[in-house]
Design a protein that fits this description.
Length: 225
């Protein structure tokens, strides 16, 4: 199986390095994406921050260029907004959709509308410098970079049916302090269209338990549900 992995806010594809190493050893393919504007050497154009559409287009291009190997599209946190948009457009190219402690939007939702008051306050405080880029919160990896505010506030446009049965998995980091995903997790547990797993290490599962995350991903069925 091929895994295309989309990070959450402020982080790059590097956040999945340890997970990718385990999956690669098992013979899987992994492409961990660094979203536009989050490059280690800084954004191409700091005066024109990318938005959610930019990120969806970027990941959709990767999916479209895939070679037909069964494909799991995975997104962490904000990355859930991105993979939902890609799946809406290219669901027939995907076999599995995996939300890693991530936002699961419906049409018209945004990261801003789905998140908690605490995160909204963090976004606003972080963007006070120029209104365009949200500063890196304390405690993240030194490789983290300011995140484009536009991508947090833009609504996603979703048409509905992906066109075929698509395996859907939600991986919860547990009820960490301030998590906006607790109610979502419980709702998805009751939905027969979803598989729900818990790795109770907090939000940044890929860094805190890469082995556990790789184990869940490795167990995904190779074809669509």
């Amino acid at each position: 199986m091929k895994f295309v992995m989309v990070p959450g806010g402020w982080q790059g594809g590097w956040v999945f390095d340890s997970v990718a190493a385990e999956l690669n050893r098992d013979g899987h393919q992994v492409e961990a994406v660094t979203l536009s504007g989050l490059e280690l050497d800084g954004p191409v154009d700091a005066d024109r921050p990318p938005n959610l559409d930019t990120h969806i287009d970027q990941v959709a291009e990767i999916v479209e260029s895939s070679d037909g190997t069964p494909l799991a599209l995975c997104g962490h946190s904000y990355g859930g907004m991105v993979i939902a948009g890609v799946a809406d457009r290219l669901g027939d190219r995907l076999d599995q959709l995996v939300f890693i402690d991530a936002y699961v939007p419906e049409d018209g939702d945004s990261c801003w509308s789905l998140t908690s008051d605490g995160f909204r306050e963090l976004f606003v405080a972080g963007a006070r410098g120029d209104g365009r880029w949200v500063a890196v919160p304390d405690g993240l990896d030194p490789r983290a970079r300011p995140h484009p505010m536009a991508s947090f506030v833009q609504s996603v446009r979703l048409g509905g049916d992906p066109g075929h049965a698509l395996g859907r998995t939600f991986i919860s980091g547990g009820a960490w302090a301030g998590s906006p995903f607790v109610t979502l997790t419980e709702r998805l547990r009751e939905d027969s269209d979803w598989q729900v797993h818990e790795i109770p290490v907090g939000h940044n599962i890929a860094r805190r338990d890469p082995h556990g995350l790789a184990a869940v991903l490795r167990a995904l069925p190779p074809g669509s549900a």
